[in-house]
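Consider this pair:
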Amino acid sequence: MKKRLFVICPGRGSYTKESLGYLKNITGSFRQIVDDFDERRRELNYPTISELDNSKTFKTNVHTKGEHASPLIYTCSAWDYHQINKEDFEVVAIAGNSMGWYLTLAMSQALDYRSAYTLIQTMGSMMKDKLIGGQVIYPIVDDQWHVDATKKALVFQLTNTLNQQPDTQCFLSIELGGYLVIAGNDLAIKKLLKELPSDGDFPFQLINHGAFHTPLLKDVSEKAFNTINAEIFHQPKVPIIDGRGHIWHPYSTDVLDLYEYTLGHQVTEPYDFTASVITGLKEFAPDHIVLLGPGNSLGGSIGQILVQTKWHGITSKSDFSIQQKEHPFLISMGDSQQKKLVV
């Protein structure tokens, strides 16, 4: 019997200096896909996917910009998904974090590879001339990954207070396991970084990120509707779970609704990654969660969600670490050793 996989697609920030060379061993038909992406980027006078990945050094002012980072991450994730051994494993559901929703559409075949590239390149380039606001990430758990209600309340109290001040706008952007991502205009970001209590490396501003999943991107949403045609969307071949925890099933999905959610609600309203993972666990009872590469930046957040749900008796960070060493439930394809378990 095939093992059941719940696949999770990463978002922006997952390709780091450790990811350089991720695509160096591409073979077969997928090489043609990358060649196509490269050619399309040459036409825009952008560095190609291959050039970005083959760079000798990771350049923050290049590799983290939306017009480069988004298609690069997409290509890496698609290559990982392409390598999953479909004879031994069945993908029963797919979800993603933030930009990972676009990747989810691609992996589920709600968009073909070329159309997904068009969507991802277009959305990733919307703020190439000037970012709209930014994002700050902040932890709301203790050392053993239990949610600290006081910390969580403090973040929301601060955002409410800041929104009462002149020219300051901030909103919940992403619920990310043991973290909250707050987005806002430039003034709000400065105040959040100053007024949130120091907690290790946090608060931390995400590099080259705009105010994703907030009303500040209403104009971006409208531009997307005027740029992206609904005809490129199809019903998914695999159930997909969006940023509300809603499941889009094959055969029953209304394609126009999927298009409108993707370019509307998903762009301007909070993205609840926590809810999407919990839905995938409870509704599809997977044998494993598989996190596509590049990187493993979502590994901690997924572990925190497993603790929150007490999944398979995991009630703390320590429990999660022990299980990952003995019988990993979460398989990160960005980890070369764990990748071998599913290819």
